[in-house]
Amino acid sequence: xxYAERVLDYYDNPRNVGTLDKSSTRVGTGLxxxxxxxxxxRIQIEVSPARHVIMDARFKTFGxxxxxxxxxxxxxxxxxxxxxxxxxxxxxxxxxxxxxPPAKIHITILIExxxxxxxxxxRHKNGMEPLKAxxxxxxxxxxxxxxxxx
Amino acid sequence: xxxxxxxxxxxxxTPCDPRVVEAMLPYFSETFGNAASRNHSFGWAAxxxxxxxxxxxxxxxxxxxxxxxxxxxxxxxxxLALKGVFEMYADKGNHIxxxxxxxxxxxxxxxxxxxxxxxxxxxxxxxxxxxxxxxxEAAITAKTILVSIMYANNEIGVISPIKEISAIxxxxxxxxxxxxxxxxxxxxxxxNRDGIDLAAFSAHKLYGPKGVGALYxxxxxxxxxxxxxxxxxxxxxxxxxxxxxxxxxxxxxKACELCQQExxxxxxxxxxxxxxxxxxxxxxxQTFVNGSKTNRLPHASNISFRYVEGEALMMGFNKNLAxxxxxxxxxxxxxxxxxxKGLGLGDDLAHSSIRFGLGRFxxxxxxxxxxxxxxxxxxKLREISPLWEMFKEGADMNTIEWSRL
Lengths: 150, 405
What we know:
heterodimer; B: about 400 residues; alpha/beta; about 40% helix
C-alpha cells in the first residue's frame, strides 16, 4: 500500500525527534507500547508553568514509517497548546492529517495515549489532579481490535 | 555507472537472462507448433525443442530427461508431488513428514491433505533452521509414505542436510521429496547423490521466465508414480495434461544450461559479495544473521537489526533498493515471518529482519551502495527509536517504567 506523500515527508525529515530531561518538573513524559513491544511511542512535553502552555514537544518512536510520521506530526500539533487543549486530541485527527489506512489506526490511538500520559506526568509532578479518567470501556481498549486487515 | 533502483530480492524472483529471452523468442511466432502434434513439421520442431530443454533441465539436477514433468511452476509441482503421492500410495499409508519452515506451497498443500485424511508431522527446526535427524527418524511410522523437506529455505537460504535426510527415508522405505526451487542452479543438486525421489522447481528463480517449472519424478529404484492432478490429453507421461508451454520450456532449458555452466564461478563471486555485505552490516551493534551461516546458499543473507522495525527500515531506501522484510507490516498477514519464528526468534527480531538476495546481475558497486544505504537508515531509525535509547542507557526492558493510563 502506498502512503500519502505527507507520511514520506515526515518519515524522511522527522520533526521534533529528541529527548527532554524527564526529571524536570516542567517536563511530562508519556511512554507507551502495544503488546510484544512491536510499537513503542515516547512523547515528551516541556510546559511553561505560568499558563501551562506546551513550549516544546519531542518524540521517539519504534515502529513502521507511518508510526514515526504520525508521532512527529503530533508533536508539531502539541507545540503552543495549553495542556488542556492538548488533552482534547482525538486520534482520528492524526489519521486524517496523514491519510492513514485502517490498518494503521491503532498507532494513532497509541500516540493519543502517549500524549495523555505525558500531560498526566506533568500534572502529577506539579500537584495537579490527573486528567479525568476515561470511561472503563475506553481505557481498556485493545489496540489490536482497531486493526483492520484489508 | 550505478543504475538505480538496485534489485536485491533474487530469492523472490530473478530477471530473465537476455540469453534466455533470445532462446525462447522464436517459439512464439516462428516455431509455434504444438509439441503434441505428431503429424506435421510444426509439431516436430516444437517437440524437438522440448526434448532439448528436457535434457538441459534434467542435466542440471543429474536426472534422466524422462524423469522431468513440466508444470506451470514450483507451486504446481509441489502440489502434484504431495497430492499425487498421497493418492497413489494410499494403500501403503497416509502419513507425510515435513518441516515448519517449508514454503507455503508445501505447507498449505499438506493442510489441504489433512482435510482429506492425511496425517502430517511438521518437524521443528533449530535456531540454525535445521531439522533434528533423530526426530525425523522417530517420526517415521509404518504409515509414512513421504518425507518432504526443502533443499534450501527461501527466507534464510539455509541448506538442509538432504543426503542424510534421504538416507533415513530410504532406510525405512519412505519416498523423499524436496522443493529445490531456491537451490537448483545455485548450488549443485544431484538427485542420485542426494537421494531425492521427487523434486519441484521453477524457471523464474534461475533466470528463466515465470509460469514454467518442473517436477522430477524418479523412474528407477524406486520407480515413483504420482496420480495426475490435471486431467486431459495425457501429456507428460499422463502425469500432467495440458499443451506444453513450448517457449517457456525452451527458456527453462536454456536457463538451466546457463546455470550449470556458470554455477561454480557465480557461486564463488556471489559468496564474496554476500560476505562483504554481511560483514559490513554486522559492524552495526545488535545486528544478527538469521539461520546457519555455514550451510547456506552463497547469495542469500537474512539479517535482523534490533530496535528498528523492518518496514520502517525499508521505507528508508526502497525507492532505490529492492529488498524484502520479515516484518508483518510489509504483508497482508498480521504475523511476522513464520520461518524466523520457527528458528525461535522473538517477534521483535522477526519484525526487524531484512532478506538480501543477490543474483547474477548484482555488482560490487551495488553492494557498496546497499551497505551505505542500509547502514545510514539503521542509524537514522535508531536515533528515533526509544528502545535504542533505553538500550544505550543500559535499561532492562523488563524494568522500564511504562506510563500508566
